[in-house]
Amino acid sequence: xxxxxxxxxxxxxxxxxxxxxxxxxxxxxxxxxxxxxxxxxxxxxxxxxxxxxxxxxxxxxxxxxxxxxxxxxxxxxxxxxxxxxxxxxxxxxxxxxxxxxxxx
Amino acid sequence: xxxxxxxxxxxxxxxxxxxxxxxxxxxxxxxxxxxxxxxxxxxxxxxxxxxxxxxxxxxxxxxxxxxxxxxxxxxxxxxxxxxxxxxxxxxxxxxxxxxxxxxxxxxxxxxxxxxxxxxxxxxxxxxxxxxxxxxxxxxxxxxxxxxxxxxxxxxxxxxxxxxxxxxxxxxxxx
Lengths: 104, 174
Ligand SMILES: [Cu+2]
What we know:
The complex is a heterodimer. Chain A is an alpha/beta fold. Helices cover 16% and strands 43% of the residues of chain A. In chain A, a hairpin with a 2-residue loop joins strand 1 (25-31) and strand 2 (34-36). Chain B is mostly helical. Chain B has a single domain (28-173), classed as Ferritin, core subunit, four-helix bundle (Ferritin), CATH 1.20.1260.10. At the A-B interface, loops of A face helix 3 and helix 6 of B. Chain B: It holds the Pfam family DUF4142.
């Protein structure tokens, strides 16, 4: 059983491979205080990436939930879970609004 | 979802009339640039006062947000006027804004604690509303240069956002 140690490692690699094969990255661009697209549909395990083109800091904030800080001219991301069908807004500019729907 | 138009007009009548009445003639681009920059500087000054005086985290955080945003926007404004070779020109509207802001700061300086927090945040709501009105009805329609107009339009969204943010903070203080 010299190679027994390989088995768990292979299992981990396999699992990671499966996850990354189906998980996608969905990009939301922020330009002049607008999230676009404002509404996105994702699957659990997908990553939402916000690309901020403004010289201002923004957030993606879920009331009573999570918050992602998006620094000026930078990007930030979050892996979505099955529970993340949410409306979100920017805490600094609450007139900025977006929506995420997690498809089953 | 924004402000009801009639309420906004009523606010304009009450708040904007004294300060912006002198600008019945269309301001020129150099004047508009000066007014927009001045409006930012006024909010920066108020924010600095709040950071130094308030002991309430929500108020200090809000003031720091104002500082950061308005400094960033004013830097963009300076870069733009440099690029366009426009020299911002002082004018009656800028002077009236500065004068009113000075009086407001003097009033705020005398207050402490919860009274200061409330007065600062209430003024932030009123002030942003006033600037929104001026941008919408006077500055944006008067701007000739497309890039200046575009910067003012982004500025309007920022000011509207700040107004909502200030309203959220005000609701939290009660
Ligand atoms: Cu924002």
